[in-house]
Design a protein that fits this description.
By secondary structure, this protein is mainly beta. 0% of the residues lie in helices and 53% in strands. The protein is built from no helices and 9 strands. Strands 2, 4, 5, 7, 8 and 9 form a 6-stranded mixed beta sheet that branches. It is elongated and about 60 Å long. The termini are far apart.
Length: 128
């Protein structure tokens, strides 16, 4: 049975632009795969079309069937994580392997503050 894992160093889940995103991609497969990749990506969710954009990859060619390898990305300038009522932008790192169904992933936040951007809550105006 195939098993993929994705871990971020120090279990860090929030990053600012330019900061290193480091972790470990692991796999236990029935046989050696052609390749395994760790991918830094962002995706949209909510109303409308959903988009997925792979920003960077670290590829391990012809690895053994069981292994764990480090990965390192640099947090990009954006887009920042966003949690709105109609749209969400979320970041993550996933590990995928050639001809293996499923992925391993870990969610993370990218912003200047380490927190997703949230729209202001609607306010009601008092009438007098």
């Amino acid at each position: 049975m195939a098993r993929l894992t994705a871990e971020l160093n120090h279990h860090q889940l929030a990053y600012v632009p330019g900061e290193p995103i480091e972790g470990l991609a692991g796999w236990e497969l029935d046989g050696p795969p052609k390749w395994v990749e760790a991918r830094l990506y962002w995706h949209t969710a909510g109303k409308g079309d959903e988009d997925v954009v792979v920003v960077d990859t670290v590829r391990y060619d012809d690895p053994p069937a069981v292994d764990a390898q480090p990965f390192r990305f640099t947090a990009p300038q954006g887009p920042f994580s966003y949690a709105g009522r109609l749209l969400e932008i979320a970041w993550g790192v996933e590990v995928v392997a050639h001809r293996v169904k499923g992925t391993a992933h870990v969610d993370l936040t990218l912003s200047a503050t380490g927190h997703p951007i949230r729209p202001p809550k609607p306010t009601s105006e008092a009438t007098g």
